[in-house]
Amino acid sequence: MKIDNHMHTALCGHAFGTPREYVDAAKKKGIELVTFTCHVPLEPDELFGGRNIRMSIDQLPRYRELIEDARVYGESVGVRVLCGIEAEIFPHPEAMKTMSATIDDQQFDFVLGSLHHHLLGYREWLEKMGLNEDGDVIRTYFKGLIAGVESGIYDSIAHPDVIRIYGTVEPFPAEAYQAEIEDFLDALRANDHCMEVNTSGLIKGVYEVHPAPVVLDWAVERGIKLTMGSDAHAPSHVGQHFDSVREMLRQKGFTSLYYFEKRERKEVSL
Ligand SMILES: [Zn+2]
Ligand SMILES: [Zn+2]
Description:
The chain is of the alpha/beta class. It has helices at residues 19-28, 45-48, 60-77, 93-106, 120-128, 134-151, 178-190, 213-221, 242-252, and strands spanning 2-4, 31-39, 80-88, 110-114, 156-157, 194-198, 226-229, 256-261, 264-269.
């Protein structure tokens, strides 16, 4: 069964199309279940990117309405639609408290945890902590993911090695920080926590899946459970590169994928 558990809505200000169009796109690609996971509302704006990064708290009812409409529409075309959120992993206890309250209040099906290392507020925090060298930034990133796993706030860690490529440090191969990445994988295993295979990297810059194939080798050895998402910001992205990536996962020895319904983990055969 094909599932896509990471996609956005226009409410975040940088995605396109209506949720119904994402459902139509899923249908065309033979995907039977999708989870919308738009960017969680977070304030203050200057820390968390503001209105073209995420919806505001008062747009949450509209988000629920849009996904409910897509769910009903999905029923008529044979695509199940679940409502999740892409939450942040961020070293700001007060903001994380507010975010957790929102998550509890909304009772989403699925909560992704993402550390968006390029957010201005995150970079300012690094600077304040004196973490300026690439090595410090990278080690802090993976420690941040571990803290995210241990927090119990999230169901799956999104695009876990995204820092290897985009922006704030010199690009590096996963092997250069194997120990740090393996610590993260060990934390996933110890907490029976999922991570995401995210295919959006395959349409950007270096054309790589997140995490890198070698990280998936280290993960399969540990029996890490995977969710899978396109990170669609437009209907045409839904299920992007799924067939080739699913084949790669099978070749590596993965046999299942997971999704979450009412925060409960469900297994589907790969
Ligand atoms: Zn986005
Ligand atoms: Zn996303």
